[in-house]
Prior knowledge:
Arc Repressor Mutant, subunit A, 5 helices, about 0% strand, globular
Amino acid sequence: MMTDPHKALGHEPGFSLLTDREIRCLQLVAEGKRLEDAGNILVLSQDDVSNALASAQIKLEARNLFHAVSIAMLMGVVKHTDPFQPK
């Protein structure tokens, strides 16, 4: 039996508070993209990407960016992708 990630986190899910930009930036970081790469993909400056990630980290009450990505993945906001998995 799997644990409900919302209960495991101990509070109400905060993903509804995340903007689309924050979610897209978290997803790209989860895929291993650098800030520069994420900015190029999203047509944003590195500062815009950095600000979106910092905002998401605050909203998710994460200790660091890695923690924010982990929380977002547990909540189902960010999808795990494996580049080596055949499609």
